[in-house]
């Protein structure tokens, strides 16, 4: 069956392919006519020390992969970097500026388009065994064309390329360090968070691959997520493609890994990457920023100053060139705080949370200090509310970066289709740092139930910004039984201003997720003595 035509969509809405193409043309010819002075200077610098060529890498099964090589002449030993492409019809092109900057700093660099994308042959394998083999073949290609000894090797990727980079490093012992930007750790958890299908994310991935050649298995898996078929088969497929499944190999060799992520990531929610990060035992660093997928590092791809890419350079300089540049002393975690944009370093992830405050879900929509049993709040299924994850996958995050986060009008949330609890106004700025946890008990009249919980920062005028959220699905409980859900909301670093209130909203429908509810069914939330409902807030 031929898949339906997909709407063109980019995970990189601000990336200017025309400008990058002009940059590459100037790399080849030396003619910088029409380029800005900054880009022209970069072209001149890299051409003075390295030779740029396009070519083909012979990948797994003999498929030819479109590639670009920045190669130094002479026999001086030097490190090398391989850059697998993002999930984009532009292939390796988004790396053109950064690869040139690495080359100017003394690295030999190979960027290539992953199979099935842009000018590469083969079919999209979603970081499967063929992609891992391709990464090793690309490294072979780079080493064979280096005129001097290759000292140490790094893999760097954004988005799709970041997952491939981690997996190649786990399988190829020649890889000495990894930079993984806007990445994933557990692909199964990213697709089925708390057993809830991330349908908007999967649709976005399909739309962004509209010009790619998906393998029949890849197409089938994505279709199955959308149609709610063969969940176990998808999870088995995802396990192989999850760096978390191969963490023992990375830890055995103590491979240094640098992650970047966004707090409001809509493709690969941060907690599944955090799970990977916290289990790594080698040198590691995590930068988490305001925005969504690839947004925090986007300006660097455009050739503008960017702290994520600056740290990526520092990370590889430290672990491939052995330069003592101070990054070891910066702490393992750097969080950008909403909405002050202050940068807050911490020595480890657990050190973000200094104490936990528990608020109980109580009658009359209150979040209080004491448990209060005996109440019921009923939610009607099948109806969306103004409480949603975001307006658009990826794109809403760019508005956040620009200082224009989505405004929620809490007075418009219909209390017949959503349950709402509000805390007292905070007496001073409240610093949320870490992973909020929700425990809530509810009764579902039908088998199969889904809800989405949102934590909002509400101003005195009733308008709000989203702090974090999480979905939850139960597929196993019999009808009309009490279900106790213990879930982690997505990690956050958020300052709640003095006089604002925290609001917890739970509804049963969000277009970002597939739900298991029957139309017009109800979910009755409550708080029995045995399993009280509460929200744990991490404070730092």
UniProtKB/TrEMBL annotation:
According to the lineage, what is the superkingdom? Bacteria
Sequence ranges assigned to domain Xaa-Pro dipeptidyl-peptidase C-terminal in this UniProt record: 313-536
Task: Provide this UniProt record's keywords sorted from A to Z.
Answer: Hydrolase
InterPro entries cross-referenced by the UniProt entry: AB_hydrolase_fold (IPR029058), CocE/Ser_esterase (IPR005674), FrsA_esterase (IPR050261), Galactose-bd-like_sf (IPR008979), Xaa-Pro-like_dom (IPR000383), Xaa-Pro_dipept_C (IPR013736)
Ranges that cross the membrane: none
Family per record: Belongs to the AB hydrolase superfamily.
* Record protein name field: Acyl esterase
């Amino acid at each position: 069956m031929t898949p339906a035509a997909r709407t063109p969509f980019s995970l990189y809405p601000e990336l200017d392919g025309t400008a990058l193409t002009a940059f590459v043309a100037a790399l080849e010819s030396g003619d910088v006519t029409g380029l800005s002075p900054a880009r022209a200077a970069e072209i001149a610098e890299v051409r003075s020390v390295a030779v740029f060529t396009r070519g083909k890498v012979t990948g797994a099964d003999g498929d030819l992969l479109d590639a670009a090589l920045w190669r130094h002449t002479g026999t001086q030993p030097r490190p090398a970097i391989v850059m697998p492409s993002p999930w984009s019809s532009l292939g390796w092109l988004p790396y053109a500026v950064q690869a040139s900057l690495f080359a100017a700093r003394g690295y030999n660099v190979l960027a290539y388009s992953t199979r099935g994308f842009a000018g590469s042959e083969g079919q999209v394998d979603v970081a499967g065994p063929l992609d891992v083999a391709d990464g090793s073949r690309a490294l072979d290609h780079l080493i064979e064309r280096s005129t001097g000894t290759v000292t140490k090797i790094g893999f760097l990727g954004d988005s799709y390329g970041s997952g491939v980079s981690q997996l190649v490093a786990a399988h190829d012992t020649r890889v000495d360090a990894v930079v993984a930007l806007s990445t994933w750790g557990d692909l199964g958890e990213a697709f089925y968070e708390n057993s809830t299908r991330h349908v908007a994310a999967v649709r976005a991935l399909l739309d962004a691959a509209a010009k790619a050649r998906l393998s029949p298995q890849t197409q089938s898996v994505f279709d199955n997520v959308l149609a709610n078929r063969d969940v176990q088969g998808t999870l088995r497929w995802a396990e192989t493609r999850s760096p978390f499944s191969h963490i023992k190999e990375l830890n055995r060799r103590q491979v240094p890994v640098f992650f970047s992520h966004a707090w409001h990531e809509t493709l690969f929610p941060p907690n599944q990457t955090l799970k990977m990060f916290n289990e790594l035992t080698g040198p590691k660093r995590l930068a988490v920023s305001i925005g969504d997928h690839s947004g925090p590092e986007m300006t660097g791809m455009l050739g503008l100053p960017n702290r994520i890419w600056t740290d990526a350079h520092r990370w590889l300089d430290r672990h491939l060139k052995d330069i003592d540049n101070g990054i070891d002393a910066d702490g393992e975690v750097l969080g950008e705080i909403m909405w002050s944009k202050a940068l807050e370093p911490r020595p480890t992830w657990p050190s973000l949370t200094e104490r936990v405050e528990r608020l109980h879900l109580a009658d009359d929509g209150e979040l209080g200090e004491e448990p209060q049993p005996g109440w019921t709040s009923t939610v009607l299924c099948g109806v969306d509310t103004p409480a949603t994850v975001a307006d658009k996958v990826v794109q809403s995050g760019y508005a956040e970066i620009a200082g224009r986060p989505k405004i929620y009008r809490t007075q418009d949330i219909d209390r017949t289709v959503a349950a709402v609890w509000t805390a007292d106004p905070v007496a001073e700025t409240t610093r949320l740092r870490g992973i909020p946890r929700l425990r809530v008990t509810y009764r579902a009249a039908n088998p199969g139930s889904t809800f989405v919980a949102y934590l909002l920062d509400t101003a005195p005028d009733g308008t709000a910004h989203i702090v974090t959220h999480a979905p939850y699905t139960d597929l196993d409980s019999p009808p009309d039984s009490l279900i106790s859900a213990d879930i982690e909301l997505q990690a956050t670093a958020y300052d709640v201003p003095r006089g604002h209130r925290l609001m917890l909203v739970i509804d049963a429908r969000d277009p970002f997720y597939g739900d298991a509810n029957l139309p017009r069914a109800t979910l009755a939330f409550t708080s029995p003595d045995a399993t009280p409902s509460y929200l744990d807030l991490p404070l730092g």
